[in-house]
Amino acid sequence: MMQQSETMLVAAEFRHQKRKLFGDRVMFIRDEGDTQVGSILIPGEIKKQSGTIVMIGVDVDLGKHDVKIGDRVLFTRYLPPEIELSRLDGSMVLVHIVHISDLYVGWDDPDLVKEYNDACASLGTST
Question: Residue 70 — left, alpha, or beta (φ > 0 → left; ψ -120 to 50 → alpha)?
Fold first, then answer.
């Protein structure tokens, strides 16, 4: 099971590798296990439909869609296919890519954003 800090390390690694996501899409890693953000508790039947954004497409209008890496999202129960991508250490991570309009709800998680910024700094990558 991938912990949230590891999810943010994956996001930082993708940025360090200068990977790009094209179009108005977002890439996320699906949450696993119990999920609670501050006072928000995601029930078990919904937690399979929540994830953390690790990459934002180059064509996403950030003025219109207030999203950033580390945001938590809810998405349709018809999950897009999993895609396996390699990490810096050679291991693989499963991600999902959807159009931004396919996301239902998003909320800022300042702790995850801080973890992402710290992970980028440790890799020598600017956020």
Answer: left
Residue whose C-alpha is closest to residue 72's, from 15, 31, 120, 12: 31
Contact 4, 36 (CB under 8 A): no
Q: 97-113 pLDDT, tens per residue?
A: 988 888 877 778 888 88
Is the torsion defined by CA of 9, 115, 22, 100 positive or negative? positive
CATH assignment at residue 10? 2.30.33.40
Handedness of CA 67, 76, 24, 1 (dihedral sign): positive
Predicted confidence (pLDDT) per residue in 71-96, tens digit: 988 887 676 778 999 999 999 999 99
Secondary structure class of 91 (helix, strand, coil): coil
pTM of full prediction above 0.85: no
Q: What is the DSSP letter of 101?
A: G
Domain encompassing residue 8: 4-123
